[in-house]
Amino acid sequence: MSDPYGSKPSRSTRGGGGGANLASCLLATCFLILVIAGAVAACYFVFKPKPPRIKVQAVRFSNLSITNGTLNLALVQEVSVSNPNRDVFSQYGSTIQLSYHGRPVGVVFIPTGKIEAGQTQRMSAKLNVQSYPLPPSSTTSFSSQPGETETMVIETRMKLVGSVRVLKVFTHRVESNEKCTVWTQAPNLSVFIQCS
Question: In order of start, what are the domains of the chain with their CATH numbers?
Answer without folding.
Answer: 51-139+150-195 (2.60.40.10)
